[in-house]
Design a protein that fits this description.
Helix content: 25-40%
Strand content: 5-15%
Shape: globular
Strand order of the largest sheet: 1-2
Number of helices: 8
Distance between the termini: 13 Å
Number of strands: 6
Structural class: alpha+beta
Order of helices and strands: HHEEEEHEEHHHHH
């Protein structure tokens, strides 16, 4: 159940009164790709978002903050995990509570994805799927994510990311990719000018 965001609730969670507004001003709801909500603020090297609880206080992981704002307090010792395996995502529908054990089991069950060898889905050892390819190309097209940063987010190397965005691997155009990329560029420019704001609804 979504908590009622009051100054008292924010204070009880160690957050200042402007936290809710600051948080949602840094979220962009992606126009496609399974509904990820992209964190546009500061990120850690592993791609997870970071936001200060108070102006001069400790940093929270953005997806943990999303859970606190949309689902309620996080029980002590629990992790907030992603079903979408997209570290910058703060969509509460893509998050679930788990322990270190369940988080490790979730990672192991999904495995790592590679991009070498046969091209696209013809590579039987390839863990990447069309949606991941679109996500990487979309993020890169916005100009907000470098190849090195994408490599850290998706657990691969810069060379593999470069091969994807240059279409050396997965060379075929994917469904609605071109139109979406063009839209992404327009919206990225609007983001820079401050004309797009995601709501907490």
């Amino acid at each position: 159940m979504q908590p009622i965001i009051t100054p008292e609730y924010l204070t009880s969670q160690g957050l200042n009164k402007t936290f809710n507004k600051r948080f949602w001003s840094k979220v962009f709801i992606m126009p496609y790709d399974r509904g990820c909500w992209l964190w546009l603020g500061t990120t850690f090297p592993n791609g997870y978002g970071a936001i200060k609880a108070k102006w001069d206080w400790k940093c929270w992981l953005a997806h943990r903050a999303a859970w606190t704002l949309c689902r309620g307090p996080i029980p002590e010792g629990m992790l907030v995990c992603h079903t979408c395996d997209n570290p910058p995502c703060v969509n509460p529908d893509h998050l679930f509570l788990g322990t270190h054990l369940t988080n490790s089991q979730d990672k192991a069950s999904k495995g790592r994805w590679g991009l070498t060898g046969a091209r696209g889905e013809s590579n039987g050892n390839n863990k990447v799927d069309p949606f991941t390819v679109i996500r990487i190309r979309w993020l890169y097209s916005t100009g907000l994510y470098s190849q090195d940063k994408l490599a850290k987010i998706f657990g691969t190397c810069q060379t593999n990311i470069s091969s994807l965005v240059q279409r050396k691997t997965w060379p075929n155009k994917l469904s609605f990719e071109i139109a979406s990329a063009q839209r992404a560029r327009r919206e990225a420019k609007r983001l820079e000018s401050g004309t797009i704001h995601a709501s907490s609804a």
